[in-house]
Write a structure and sequence with these properties.
The protein is of the alpha/beta class. It is built from 13 helices and 23 strands. The structure holds cytidine-5'-triphosphate. Cytidine-5'-triphosphate binds next to α11 and β18.
């Protein structure tokens, strides 16, 4: 599922019966994270109320050039509004509004906003079937398309007139799909699938104890956020963590042990384009975890260990179309060790971070990396925030992958 987080959308509503669907459209856009401001044509008030739209959009709804305050009239600045938006979506667009748009007839705030907007324009027409098919209307649609406006198709079915045919407004969820595709299609990782492992794994010793490590999952989360921002469909497989996932705009599967992580990873791995192993997987797990809490009186326990599956090595072995990237955490800045790990695990690239670098590694918000890609030459980066490091890594992957 893709989000519209941070996107600013103006919804222009003109006076057609399909306007009754627009509060749902606003709600769906907002659920995807968009900020929505509504501009209504004056006649659209007959079909949907500004009050409903302002409640669902959580914004003031604009309709006229001047706000109605007799003593202090306020100019509703359509130029600023047009510059604010990342997208102007006009839904429903009636024959009258399409005609005014095509002829630059700036007789209401919506048309003035349309004419002054610099952002992309998306138009969802809605009208009766004969009006829709009329050559004058089709000519207007062609004219608008020739200006670079994106014209959405109409739906087919029962119309308010009682006739059946082409002219219905696309359903709100279909319009939202088009909006998402619009924002993603220009992005470098659009239609790509990315799998990322992150965080530590915990291996049970007894019901209250485990073998684990200090990994916070922050680096893997930053890589997932960046991949999402670049348009990818992201699956994050995350070990035990203290991250806030409430705003995660991508799929997260939480796991505990290495075996659980492996199972979750290989459910997705065959279908993805990129796989990044950023997790600090415990190399060993207790051979026989105790069913009861180990008591002091039993003396100092000796815990027999067995190896965990190496998830990255299995990715390297089973990869087909996937670009596989691993991490190498070294306690010394020895890129040759990292290179050997890359070769051993058949990764396409490896990112080394060294625990000896101040500010690099597990719990901190910063990291200092060396990237070793296809040419096997180490490329060193300075100490940066993990978000900046994620950008550097994706830039390297996209150069190579
Ligand atoms: N990795 C993995 N599964 C494991 C161990 C490691 O997927 N069981 C992955 C890590 O996510 C990382 C890479 O392998 O991308 C290297 O991890 P690291 O801990 O640096 O290397 P190890 O293989 O554990 O080798 P060593 O501990 O000897 O340095």
């Amino acid at each position: 599922m893709q989000s519209l987080r941070g996107k600013k959308i103006i919804l222009g509503i003109s006076a057609g019966i399909a306007a009754y669907k627009t509060p749902i459209l606003v709600r769906l856009l907002k659920q995807k994270g968009a900020q929505v401001r509504v501009v209504l044509t004056p006649d659209a008030h007959a079909f949907v109320t500004p009050l409903t739209l302002s409640v669902v959009s959580e914004e003031e709804v604009l309709s006229s050039f001047v706000a109605e305050d007799k003593d202090n009239p306020v100019w509703n600045d359509h130029v600023a509004l047009g510059l604010w938006a990342d997208l102007l979506l006009i839904a429903p667009a009636t024959a009258n509004t399409l005609s005014a748009m095509a002829q630059a007839k700036s007789n209401n705030l919506l048309i003035a906003t349309y004419l002054s907007a610099r952002c992309p324009i998306m138009v969802a027409p809605a009208m009766d079937l004969d009006m829709y098919a009329h050559p004058a209307n089709q000519k207007n649609l062609d004219t608008l398309a020739s200006y670079g406006n994106q014209i959405l198709p109409v739906g087919e079915g029962a119309l308010a007139s009682g006739l059946v045919g082409k002219g219905r407004l696309l359903e709100p969820d279909q319009i939202v799909e088009r909006v998402i595709v619009h924002f993603n299609s220009a992005l470098p990782l659009s239609r790509k699938k990315v799998l990322i492992t992150a965080g530590p794994t915990y291996e049970k010793i007894d019901p209250v104890r485990y073998i684990g490590n200090f990994s916070s999952g922050k680096m893997g989360y930053a890589l997932a956020e960046e991949a999402h921002a670049l348009g990818a469909e992201v699956y994050l497989i995350l070990g035990p963590h203290a991250l806030d996932l409430s705003n995660a705009p991508f799929a997260v599967e939480e796991v505990v042990s290495a075996t659980e992580m492996e199972t979750a990873v290989f459910k997705k791995f065959p279908t993805v384009d990129f796989a990044i192993a950023a997790a600090a997987v415990a190399d060993f797990k207790p051979l026989a975890p105790k069913p009861h809490k180990i008591k002091k009186e039993e003396g100092i326990p000796s815990i027999e260990l067995q190896p965990n599956p190496d998830i990255l090595a299995r990715m390297g072995k089973e990869k087909k179309q996937q670009f596989v990237l691993g991490f190498a955490l070294e306690t010394q800045d020895n890129w040759k060790e990292a290179l050997a790990k890359k070769r051993r695990k058949k990764a396409d690239a490896i990112v080394m971070n060294s625990l000896t670098d101040p500010g690099a590694g597990f719990a901190s918000d910063t990291n200092k990396i060396t990237y070793i890609g296809e040419n096997e030459k180490p490329k060193r980066f300075s100490l940066k925030s993990k978000n900046e490091v994620a950008k550097d890594i994706w830039n390297e992957i996209m150069d190579q992958g």
